[in-house]
Write a structure and sequence with these properties.
- An 8-stranded mixed β-sheet has the order 1-7-8-11-13-15-14-12, with helices on one face.
- It is globular.
- The chain has 2 domains: 4-95, no CATH class; 112-321 and 329-468, Metallo-dependent phosphatases (Purple Acid Phosphatase, chain A, domain 2, 4-Layer Sandwich).
- A hairpin with a 2-residue loop joins strand 9 and strand 10 (294-297).
- The chain contains 13 helices and 18 strands.
- The chain has helices at 4-10, 18-30, 32-37, 41-48, 52-95, 143-146, 151-165, 185-192, 194-199, 218-226, 302-317, 348-352, 375-382, and strands at residues 112-113, 119-125, 169-173, 203-206, 238-240, 248-250, 260-265, 276-282, 288-291, 294-297, 339-342, 356-359, 385-390, 399-402, 405-409, 426-436, 441-453, 460-468.
- It is an alpha/beta fold.
- Homodimer.
Length: 469
């Protein structure tokens, strides 16, 4: 064996610090056999007999290997330091939460209620088909309009509509983003809904058949929508507890994501200030399905219709005070509180017809499911739904009646969705008006609608009355 003591005492003073001594010990231990191969058999015998001179012969070799090993350690430390620096400056800020900049969702003022002037205005936005902002070109516009046309045209249209109409609520009826061309679903939604979030107006959305084609599932999309500023969107519905009417319980085993209802209270200071006078249903009409080997659009399922019937019944059970008001007119019961419904894909009855009292343009064949799940039958039977607002078919913008209920298209809003060159993008406005009593506002008396097109003046077209008490 090598005489380790002779090595220690013959090492130059310049390397006699603790760390280097430890390095040399490790080097000596690991390279013992190789060191022995560098001496002759007779020298090896003398080493075993304790001849320190021979041990000193191998010292330069050990020192050289020790220095090489130290260089390796220093190189490793340098690499680790560089990696740590890159992580600190570039990687960690993107992967970790910056608690200084983190904030909670900006919540809208609730409950929703009519204005002091007895009105409640809703802006319907159908089929924005948002992609990647200014990188996404427009579709179906005139050649003279194509240069520089992008998703930002949709953004400007929404901003102008909000400024002009000053709605109390905005309802987005699906295909909010065009998933197949949206590189990042979350980023596209932040841009698409940016104008309404910036405005601070309460809003809600349902999904269409294209939203989930990017980087998020339908459940993830609705969850994300529910967390956005001033959003009232909900992933799952809830109903009143059968025991405690002031509590809400989740609805189990319901199809889809984005089934919920929002209740609008009466005007402040009125007899209905703390009561529901208008109800809004939101339903997930799905995306695509296969029926008997045939591809078709999805449809609203029985579990969703059962939930809607339950909500309608609960509203009816919560009757308002039937005593006469100070004006001498009877107050309205919950049984006649009107409701509106919002979803994306039209129902088969719209294709089968006949649709009566048409106001607007019927430009394209109604694209819907092959499955008739009884939506119209349900809406007629509950009796509270006065009008339904849909999207999906961009170049249809009409309202027409089926079974005494109005079905209204929003008209294509977004510039990245298909359309007809020269036919302006458009949005729909819905206005509910309360009945004016001698001393106070009453229940909803009238529901009107009109559209505005994206021209220089945001021209108002096709104004009509949908329902009147």
């Amino acid at each position: 064996m090598l005489d380790m003591s002779s090595i220690f005492f013959d090492v130059p003073d310049s390397i006699l610090d603790a760390q280097k001594m430890l390095d040399l010990i490790v080097a000596c231990s690991k390279r013992k056999q190789e060191s022995q191969r560098n001496i002759s058999p007779s020298q090896a015998k003398r080493v075993e007999q304790g001849d320190s001179a021979v041990g000193q012969l191998s010292l330069p070799i050990l020192m050289e290997e020790g220095v090489t090993w130290i260089h390796s350690i220093l190189y490793l430390v340098l690499v680790c330091s560089a990696v740590h620096l890159l992580d600190t400056l570039l990687v960690s800020p993107k992967l970790s939460i910056n608690h200084q900049n983190a904030r909670i969702k900006k919540a809208p003022s609730t409950p929703l209620r009519f204005r002091a002037d007895g009105t409640f205005k809703i802006l319907q936005v159908a089929d924005m088909h948002f992609g990647n902002g200014n990188l996404t070109p427009c579709r179906d516009v005139l050649d003279s309009e194509y240069a520089g046309c992008s998703d930002l045209n949709t953004t400007r249209f929404l901003e102008r509509m909000i400024r002009l109409e000053k709605p109390d609520f905005v309802a987005f009826t699906g295909d909010n983003i065009f998933g197949s061309t949206a590189n990042d679903a979350a980023e596209s939604m932040l841009q698409a809904f940016g104008p309404v979030m910036k405005s601070g107006i309460p809003w809600a959305a349902v999904l269409g058949n294209h939203d989930q084609e990017s980087t998020m599932t339908r459940e993830e999309l609705m969850s994300f929508l529910s967390l956005m500023d001033f959003s009232l969107s909900q992933t799952f519905p809830s109903v009143e507890d059968s025991v405690h009417s002031d509590k809400q319980v989740p609805v189990p085993n319901i199809d889809g994501f984005g089934n919920y209802d929002l209740r609008i209270w009466g005007a402040p200071g009125s007899n209905f200030a703390n009561s529901t006078v208008l109800n809004l249903y939101f339903l997930d009409s799905g995306d695509r399905a296969v029926v008997n080997g045939v591809r078709t659009y999805d449809w609203i399922k029985e579990s969703q219709l059962s939930w809607l019937r339950n909500v309608s019944q609960k509203l009816e059970e919560r009757k308002l005070d039937s005593d006469k008001s100070a004006s001498g007119t009877p107050q309205y019961s919950a049984a006649v509180v009107p409701s509106l419904a919002f979803f994306h894909i039209p129902i088969p009855e719209m294709r089968e017809g006949p649709i009566c009292n048409l106001v607007g343009r019927y430009r394209e064949y109604t694209a819907c499911s092959l499955v008739n799940s009884g939506v119209l039958k349900t809406l007629v039977s509950v009796g509270d739904v006065k009008a339904v607002f849909i999207g999906h078919d961009h170049t249809n913008d009409f309202c027409g009646t089926l079974g005494g209920i109005w079905f209204c298209y929003g008209g294509g809003f977004g510039y990245h969705g298909y359309g007809v060159a020269g036919w302006a993008r458009r949005g729909r406005v819905i206005l509910a008006e309360l009945e004016k009593g001698e001393q106070s506002w009453g229940g909803v008396k009238m529901i009107r609608t009109w559209k505005r097109i994206d021209d220089e003046a945001l021209s108002k077209i096709d104004e009509q009355v949908l329902w009147e008490r």
